[in-house]
């Protein structure tokens, strides 16, 4: 059940973040304007600072927990965080983590990710 919820969150986040990115570029704003636009208002600065703090905490958790559980290819979640969105990378990691925990408890297969 948890894995399905994490998968659903990752899919919704992927669609929503990429749609917003396409909308940004289609509006005539380029990649160089993305960060400038994100911090153009105090509210935008708040959101950016909040997301960076959450991303840092999530990255520390993903790497330390991933190493502890023997999850392979942890670099994928780091790359996803910086190239797609933390809202996609973190639920994807949690899904694989849950699968790894189930496997270690003898209730499933080992992770391939």
Summary tags:
single chain, 113 residues, mainly alpha, 5 helices, 79% helix
Q: Roughly how many Å is the radius of gyration? A: 16 Å
Number of strands: 0
Helices and strands, in order, run as: HHHHH
Q: Let me know the largest β-sheet.
A: none
H/I helix tally: 5
Mean pLDDT: 92
Structural class based on helices, strands and sheet pairing: mainly alpha
- Contiguous low-pLDDT stretches (5 residues minimum) are none
Helix content: over 70%
Number of structural domains: 1
Shape: elongated
Characterization of this structure:
- This protein has 113 residues and is mainly α.
- The chain has one domain (2-104).
- It has five helices and no strands.
- The chain has helices at residues 2-26, 31-38, 42-69, 75-83, 86-104.
- Helix 1 (2-26) runs antiparallel to helix 5 (86-104), helix 3 packs antiparallel against helix 4 and helix 3 runs parallel beside helix 5.
- The protein starts with a helix and ends in a 9-residue tail after the last helix.
- The mean pLDDT is 92.
Brief description of this entry?
This protein has 113 residues and is mainly alpha-helical. The protein has five helices and no strands.
Fold topology:
Elements: H1 2-26, H2 31-38, H3 42-69, H4 75-83, H5 86-104
């Amino acid at each position: 059940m948890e894995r399905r919820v994490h998968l659903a969150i990752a899919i919704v986040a992927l669609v929503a973040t990429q749609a917003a990115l396409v909308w940004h570029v289609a509006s005539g704003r380029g990649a160089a304007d993305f960060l400038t636009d994100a911090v153009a208002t105090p509210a935008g600065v708040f959101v950016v600072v909040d997301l960076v703090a959450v991303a840092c905490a999530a990255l520390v958790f993903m790497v330390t927990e991933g190493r502890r559980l023997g999850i392979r290819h942890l670099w994928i979640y780091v790359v996803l965080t910086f190239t797609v969105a933390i809202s996609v990378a973190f639920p994807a990691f949690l899904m694989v983590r849950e699968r790894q925990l189930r496997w270690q408890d003898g209730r499933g297969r080992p992770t391939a990710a």
